[in-house]
Amino acid sequence: xxxxxxxxxxxxxxxxxxxxxxxxxxxxRLTELLNQAQTITARFSQLTLDAGGTQLQExxxxxxxxxxxxxxWHTDAPMEQLLVSNGKQVWLYDPDLQQVTIQKLDQRLTHxxxxxxxxxxxxxxxxxxxxHNEGGNVVDFILKPKAKxxxxxxxxxxxxxxxxxxxxxxxxxxxxxNILFLNVKMNQPQADSQFTFEIPAGADVIxx
Length: 208
Prior knowledge:
Layout lengths: L1 H4 L11 H19 L3 E11 L5 E12 L3 E6 L5 E6 L2 E6 L4 E6 L8 H6 L5 H4 E8 L2 E8 L8 E7 L2 E8 L5 E11 L17 E4 L1
Parallel strand pairs: 6-12
Antiparallel strand pairs: 1-2, 1-11, 2-3, 3-4, 4-5, 5-6, 7-8, 8-9, 9-10, 10-11
């Protein structure tokens, strides 16, 4: 449920002119990198650690993203979950619980890490303060939500050789979630049908 909990952000304004200038440069660079890929497929490896570095959870799976706003994030067994968006709503399916949670893709949900990669990159600056560091073939972006009630304090998004490589989320208590992307492929045709979800017979449905 962690990926779903991250779908909760609102907006806060800037006060520093210097920060605005730095943010604009970082947004321009990040937009360039994100816009080069209209679709992305990748394997992912996810590791969550507490503030002291103790491992809390480890998982892996497959993701498919397609602009604008379409994504499919499938976590492998034994902690299997499927997160799907058709650009209008989001389904979270837990096969062990036989439970589907459905949420409307409203303004709050568009400010999330998954949709940052698949959504409207022109709106990034509305939702995050952004800085970046570029060295050699690696570019790191630090995104800090402008929301007061965000469930993560910062998001680092890294590209290697202009290709998505990894991201790290840190929450208010220091818990870190590291996601490494493997076998990344961009701009391959992706059928829209994989971004809809048919509710299995007998599954419990929670509408939020």
